[in-house]
Inverse folding.
């Protein structure tokens, strides 16, 4: 079993893809909601995040705060519970806008109680209206996903031309979805609500 | 269809014009209002904005908070809902006062539910009383608007002399409005309320 | 008509005088009060202000918060409405204490609904008790006022000797009031309440 | 009449003494209380104050908040009204602990409505328990007080030896009180309550 | 008796392991809850902690705020009482993610009233979902534990290969548990609830 | 009479010992509680304190907030009254953890109304559980205490070996207590409650 199975076994965790000094890598985004009985609200961000990545987390949260009802997510939970988003490993500095879709997916998973599919990894900037904007490093990210045992990858539609750079042997073992709205991401990446309930039973 | 059609398809998005290192460019301003059930209020600004641009956003919001009732905008929404303003792309630093009219238009669109015309782009500093003050880079901005398929451009009245520098071939394909008060901007740029309601139906 | 007529056509705007790299210049101070229905209170300062100028704005506001009732200003408005003070143009850095009287006048105009006379410009530091303290650059400031079509100028009493440096031709076309208390400034600069009401009707 | 007469004509203003680059100088401390109807509470400090001087203001205020009732000062006013302390001139940087007694006197004058004697100037650090601690520059400060027309000066008891350095001609025209507790300062410097009431009538 | 017996005699203290300039060392984490009658809530962190270690403390607290009820911890206490986490000695700078499990254990001990076993020391990063992630310096940390009289050590499962580097003589005197979820840590390290009650009686 | 008699004549003041550039010195810690009628709560720290010393003050306060009831201190006062801790002289920078016991004693004196014995000085870091941890400069500190007329000194138990460095003539005139828990400090240093009541009568 790939590591992503263990990581994404609970709602609130999504698998992203990053470019690092040493090529690409799989990156987990973890989100939690505090028990309302513990008081306090707001957003805590950890994992040695740079300014652009912190802004991505705020965009993902605002997207869900303004569009969550349309998406049938119980956003009322945000009123009484504080949100924490963490990117392990905690000592590695991280930055860039390309975790936008992963952040949105982790938060939507947390709110809905639906886990994220462990065979899916994703990359893409999001805008405040939910558009998926292009990012860099598609080749390195797909190679990293493949190495990690991921079989389905979501990339921005505007990055489709970059797929030409990915070796055919890797392309053959990956299902790649090109997406332009984060709603497409959520439809593909979240497990069905029923399955989640069985898991919780 | 130009990209601006997709971007401005929802209320809260307006098309601006900026001067970049590589000439001019089209710049989108996105605004959202959180669901009041998610708690928390205030203004969040993202997109790697410089100090002058952040101040422009505060001026635009204060203008609407003090004059919104005259403009028949439902400003009461601001009491219970937090506002987020984002400038994609998230990793590109941005600064300067010339997005003032675009910011005001995006926020007025958001409050009114009226989308911004996708064929319109604009540039201009605003003052706290709604005056439109001159900006730089008119030539590069109009060339960028033209390249992006925009057909109507709003510039500050005090920039009218700069139109002489724009090639005649471009001038012929653009309708340019020179404006001195942001109310003129809103009248031209916002789609009629009725159309917006049909779109929502 | 001088530009100051347009700028000061609404309550909350006063005309100041500044020394810049290129001699003196006219400087507008704009103040607005948010609609109480938009929630939130406090003071927002914009216009790329330096520390001394930001402190001047706080002094002007505290003066009105402590002495406003004596001056028959409806200071209760400050309890439920946030104040924004802006100095256009937004990208030009500004500093120094000499906008103290202009700040106080703009705020008193805003609270009273009485516009500021468009033929009047002013300069002077204020103390927390309303005293008008001397400033620099009297000559450059009066030349700038004259160029801008201003006909009445208010300067600190302790700057009276500096008037000797102003060319007689300019002196002859300006009415100069030397003032030592900001109450004198408000009496001269604010239009009568009645006129303001007619304007609003 | 010395300038201090005008400055200290209202409650809340006390005359201090400072060492500057050019010898000693008289320094005014102004304090104001906002009208409770203007909302907001807290302490605002202006006058380009350094860290040590800002801490002196907090010590003076805490002294009055903990000992005010013993001193028969109506400290309840602090609950609903914000305090502003300003040191003119606003653009001149100021620092050091020696304004402690002046700050306490200005605040006690403000709370009691009793003006500070205009013939009195003072210098001295205060501790949180109201002790008056020694300061530097006694000679320059007394020369400055004398030049400004001050006739009574308060200095810390532990600075008594420094009086030897003051020219006899100046010493002869000044009444110097050496004090070790800030209560002695208030007894000497505040005008009687009755006089204050007549002034207000 | 080793020093850890004295340190961990009260609930809220756990023994960690750190790498320092001079090899490894034992490190105590102390946590306290304020009496609810003292007002104020929130988290205070002291001990000259670096950014990564401060984030570890926030992750540990969020983990307990979201999962505490499952763990049968009375998290409601967090609503009315402020938490303070301190790492003695107070003047020594400390950083890194490897105190994550120790922080979680100290906080869980505090909430449950169950002391931490004085013969146990631990090291490991935690994720927001409670996973125990690998850290560095296993050899130095185990040598330090041994020197300090510790007999049981908890390390991340993914650090198991590092045990090969530990001298056999030390390995023989230590019971080492490799753990992958912080729940395993709490089960091993916290004394039984009954014992804690007897201690309190 | 030594100066410490005057300084510690009121509850809330304790005598500490510090190492300075010029050997050791006596250091006073002053604490005050605001009248609850003045509104506002929280902790104010003054005296140009470094980060480690500010953290020591927070540790001392948290210790009392969590253990105060056991110590029969009326900690409820902290809910409605703001605390101010000041280290005179106000312009001298101070840092280090060794004022921990002095801070705790000053705060316990303030809460209990029992003054601190004027013949006692102390030094020692405290942990959040009240343990007294070793500090540096024992020799210089004891020489300074002796010079200042102090007759009883409290030092951490783990600093007992450092007493060998203190000249026998000084040792003979000082009673030195070695302590390992801050409760021992409070028992020795605070005057009996009865004496305090008589002083207040
Ligand atoms: Ca990137
Ligand atoms: Ca697609
Ligand atoms: Ca610009
Ligand atoms: Ca026009
Ligand atoms: Ca100036
Ligand atoms: Ca005059
Ligand atoms: Ca000084
Ligand atoms: Ca005396
Ligand atoms: Ca580490
Ligand atoms: Ca294991
Ligand atoms: Ca020390
Ligand atoms: Ca002992």
């Amino acid at each position: 079993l790939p590591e992503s199975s263990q990581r994404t076994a609970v709602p609130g965790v999504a698998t992203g893809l990053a470019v690092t000094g040493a090529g690409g890598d799989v990156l987990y985004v973890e989100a939690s909601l505090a028990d309302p009985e513990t008081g306090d609200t707001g957003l805590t961000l950890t994992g040695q995040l740079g300014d652009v990545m912190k802004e991505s987390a705020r965009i993902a949260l605002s997207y869900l705060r303004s569009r969550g009802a349309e998406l049938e997510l119980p956003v009322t939970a945000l009123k009484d519970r504080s949100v924490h988003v963490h990117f392990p490993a905690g000592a590695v500095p991280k930055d860039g806008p390309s975790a936008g879709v992963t952040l949105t997916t982790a938060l939507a998973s947390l709110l809905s109680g639906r886990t994220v599919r462990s065979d899916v990894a994703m990359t893409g900037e999001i805008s405040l209206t939910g558009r998926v904007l292009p990012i860099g490093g598609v080749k390195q990210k797909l190679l990293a996903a493949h190495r990690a045992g991921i079989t389905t990858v979501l990339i921005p539609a505007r990055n489709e031309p970059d797929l030409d750079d990915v070796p055919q042997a890797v392309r053959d073992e990956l299902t790649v979805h090109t997406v332009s709205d984060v709603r497409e991401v959520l439809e593909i990446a979240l497990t069905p609500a029923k399955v989640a309930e069985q898991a919780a039973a």
